[in-house]
């Protein structure tokens, strides 16, 4: 009998949750889990008085209508066009319904096809990868303090307590021109991806995040991340989506 090695296909499982946090009266975050087409998103709305929730929900609802494409580039283009359409609709909504009051939302999306992952984002919602017990941030914040750090004007530690730490430089719905950043990377079995709003990483340290990600089940990790943020008095809405690559027929 020939010795034939059968490669089990890689599949992606996910869990997500959101919480209003300990200070805000409204939850303006939204998230999307669509493992059937390997697309996940976290959107963090801003604008108050339900404006932010309108913005984040519009992004998520638009993306939820997408269908998988055989060609990765075409799928990425569909995502970019969909978010750009949400940007234009939010500008019109603000003009007609809110007398021009600015509303908007950051977003971060993860798309996986085969052994390739794609991160698309605008703002400071983040994508992390947890691989071989190491946590790496894939997205790069579109924020004032992130620019200061990249220019060497302040340290990452100083950025955490900077008075303008909440000033973002890019978001959906705030400008006629929307630039969406895209990063492409490899994915492997065992990779664990974390999409989150700033309500999580501003309240939970990297060490605490990694400790939560070591939980055996995804839903336990999600619950632990949010509970840790709440225990640390999270001052913003907290949204978490976890995505893990496994071989089929392997429980998580």
CATH class: Alpha Beta
Estimated share of beta-strand residues: 25-35%
Please state the structural category. Answer: alpha+beta
What's the total count of β strands?
10
Describe the strand arrangement of the main beta sheet, using strand numbers.
1-10-9-6-7
The pLDDT mean sits at: 89
Rg (CA only): 18 Å
Q: Sheet with the most strands?
A: 5 strands, antiparallel
CATH superfamily membership: PPM-type phosphatase domain
| Bulk shape | globular
Q: What order do the SSEs take from the amino end to the carboxyl end, as H and E? A: EEEHHEEEEHHEEHHHE
The third-level CATH topology is Phosphatase 2c, domain 1
State the end-to-end distance: 34 Å
CATH architecture tag = 4-Layer Sandwich
Task: Figure out the total of helices.
Answer: 7
Counting structural domains, the number is 1
Helix content: 25-40%
pLDDT below 50 for ≥5 consecutive residues: which ranges?
1-6
Protein name: Serine/threonine-protein phosphatase
Pfam family, one: PP2C_2
Domain PPM-type phosphatase: 14-245
């Amino acid at each position: 009998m020939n010795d034939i090695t059968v490669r089990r296909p890689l599949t992606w499982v996910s869990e997500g949750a959101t919480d209003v946090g300990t200070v805000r009266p409204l939850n303006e975050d939204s998230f999307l889990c669509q493992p059937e087409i390997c697309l996940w998103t976290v959107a963090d709305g801003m604008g108050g008085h339900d404006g932010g929730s309108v913005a984040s929900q519009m992004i998520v609802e638009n993306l939820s209508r997408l269908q998988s494409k055989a060609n990765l580039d075409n799928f990425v283009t569909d995502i970019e066009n969909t978010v750009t359409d949400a940007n234009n609709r939010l500008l019109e909504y603000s003009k007609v319904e809110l007398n021009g009051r600015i509303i908007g939302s950051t977003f971060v999306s993860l798309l996986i096809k085969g052994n390739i992952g794609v991160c698309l984002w605008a703002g400071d919602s983040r994508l992390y990868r947890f691989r071989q017990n190491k946590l790496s941030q894939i997205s790069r914040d579109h924020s004032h303090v992130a620019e200061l750090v990249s220019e060497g004007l302040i340290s990452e530690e100083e950025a955490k307590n900077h008075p303008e730490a909440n000033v973002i430089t890019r978001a959906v719905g705030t400008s006629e021109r929307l630039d969406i950043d895209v990063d492409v990377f490899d994915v492997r079995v065992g990779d664990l991806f974390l999409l989150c709003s700033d309500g999580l990483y501003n309240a939970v340290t990297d060490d605490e995040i990694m400790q939560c990600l070591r939980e055996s089940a995804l839903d336990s990790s999600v619950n632990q991340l949010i509970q840790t943020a709440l225990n640390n008095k999270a001052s913003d809405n907290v949204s978490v989506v976890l995505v893990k690559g496994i071989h089929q027929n392997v429980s998580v």
